[in-house]
Amino acid sequence: EIVLTQSPGTLSLSPGERATLSCRASQSLYSNYLAWYQQKPGQAPRLLMYGASNRATGIPDRFSGSGSGIDFTLTISRLEPEDSAVYYCQGYGDSPPRLTFGGGTKVEIK
Amino acid sequence: QVQLQESGPGLVKPSQTLSLTCTVSGGSINSGYYFWSWIRQHPGKGLEWIGYIYSTGSTYYNPSLKSRVTISIDSSKNQFSLNLNSVTAADTAVYYCARGTNVVAAVWGQGTLVTVSS
After folding, report:
1. Coil, helix or strand at residue A32
2. Among chain A residues, CA nearest to B41
3. Do B104 and A47 touch (CB under 8 A)?
4. Segments in chain B below pLDDT 70
């Protein structure tokens, strides 16, 4: 069973600063099937990134993803107030096929 | 574009079966190689994958819930459904349906809160 550990738990930054969110897998992820989601209070999660580094449709280019194997990073290059949210990483394990989510990182804008 | 909407009882008694339906609009549930998933979120907590079904009918479930879960698809109504039996208070959560491809949940419903209580 793949376990995804996200850090830090909470990130408190000012507008214009750079946010770096980490997601570490307990084993190498199948074909880099790593996605990131953004969830604002009272809303459903929204897909940000897939395949570790590909932005989903309509996602601003201040969001970027990187990593491979077991270590993955979501970077928000210049924080804006609307980026305040919880961010989840999600991986895929194929034995048996299943989706796994990390515990989330809360990004607060000062 | 495709939209998903969950529906079903907001209150279920302990030991009974939780039944939810996700109605797909703006596209056919049979089009393309998508999976149709249920994901839940306990109050104030993170996301938990419940399972998914392909339009071919193949299903995959979270091992921790597998003994209690059934996901089915009704192509004639463009819907897919979740049945979770023998529920307890621990099943109280917001339940989301989602459409995915390449093991990513790209389109989500708005979610529906289900409370398990007598």
Report:
1. helix
2. A44
3. yes
4. 32
